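Subject: complex prediction, re-run

Hi both,

The earlier run crashed halfway through, so I resubmitted it with identical inputs.
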Amino acid sequence: MLLTPEDITAIWLSLKVALTATLLSLPFGFATAWLLVFKTLRGKVVLEVLVNLPLTLPPVVIGYFLLLLLGKNGWLGKALAETGIQLIFTWKAAVIASAVVGFPLLVRSIRLGMESIDKQLIAASRTLGASWYDSLFTIILPLSLRGIVAGSSLMFARSLGEFGATIIVAGNMPGRTQTIPLAIYDYTSSPSSTAMALSLCMVSVVISVAVLLLHEMLGRKLDRSSAS
Amino acid sequence: MRLQLNLKKQFGSFFLKMDADISGERIGIFGDSGSGKSSIVNLVAGLLQPDKGEIFLDGEALFSSRDHLNISPEKRRIAIVLQQAMLFPHLSVKNNLLYGYRRCAEQHRKIKPDALIDLLKLEPLLHRGVNYLSGGEKQRVALGRAVLANPRLLLMDEPLSALDDQLRYQIIPYLRSVSEEFRIPYLFISHSVNEMQLMTEQILVVNGGALIEVTTPERLARNRMAQSQGGYLNLLHLADPVNQHGLFACRWGKNTLLVSTGANCSEKSLFELSSREIILFKKHPEAISARNLLECTVEEMFNSGGRIGVVLSADGEKLIAEIVQSAADELNITPGSPLFAAIKASSFRRLG
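This time it finished cleanly. Structure:
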């Protein structure tokens, strides 16, 4: 195993970006899934398309849009710059890129979990005196926990692999915005660094397997507690 | 309890139009599946909104399209028991039971958990997970959960339909005792005439989304005797059971009846007897296997879907037997004629 100090930073940064992106997206993902499953909205199709668009769009395109939006001349970038917040070419931009790209995966999983909840359970809770948000937190949330866990692990894993959008909005600065995939990309462009690239690949495999195992474990634990 | 409904609601091609003003504590809504019964439940509970109209409960508006008023379900204090128990799978039996109670305002908490748990015999189930309960146990917990929310009206939408016969008869006594003990008015929705007879005093008959008639269980049961699964149900209050060679001799008015299921009966218990379980004889049969032979007089006769209902009086107690037309002709039954009614001891079913 050959890991330079910059590789170690890239590993930590990848984990940090993926975790932040997932945690940041969770409340929004939950809310979006809830809207899509339980609410009759006008323009639901528009929301649906918008949420799923990052799944079909090339990540590079998403990155470019984000760059236009958050860059110096973008309307959001300008507003943020006035309050002294600089996002582009920082690790925060990588978080946003990962969040946007992974969001549909999160929403899809939570949605599947929510769709399996019998609507009559929610009706029952309402007639027992629970307001809609009471019912949301005491019935819908615990019963869609499986979907939330699945969606989070999926999104976390997807964020670890995020490349296209990240390289555009966050750049590829070793030690600052370089994540594992970007570092591997760097190594592969020089023929002498095969061993270095392979080492990082191994780290990727280990992290991915760990995420999958954690997901399985949490899923089993949830099954057990709901069966007792 | 007074419930006033005046509403319209369209579901795709189905149109529900209801205009009813009904008062009582034990009201039934009777109709075949697809008649709009369950929609009424959802509209009264606030889970669906009428397109137009009003819903009043005890003079208080729950919904009014004219005043743009729609009280949300959690504020209506109307609890539901559905065909499926719909227990919250992530909560224990105890937390299911207390779900509504905890959300009920202090001043409305008249029914206490301990009293209810006692009455429904839920103690042994309290710490079990809801997935380890049988169908009947689940329904008992669902009933308890609804009652503990201390509702001012209980809606029971086919609560017995998902249970097999045996379980159904285990649950009915609980349903009856809960309503008697805690005096919660209810709407009981079912397609079973027998359940209507057991659970209600007054019945709204609905069909095709409209109210057909307001009737009594007695009239409904007589009208539907031929089609109904168990015919007409005779409800008998039997008292003071005494064990006699494995059977129980009970007092029924001035008569004595032998029943096979009298074990651990209290002093006075309710039994049902289907009109189809009674065999009529013109003369005294010398020897029969049926353990009960009552000397009766025919009080009146009625026709129901080709069958003849014979209203008998046995020493002042009333009983309805069901026979076919040819049997009536052969026996030459007319009001006032004496008859013998034979009933097997195993034909009586205990209801509580």
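The domain at 2-223 of chain B is CATH 3.40.50.300 (Rossmann fold).

- K.
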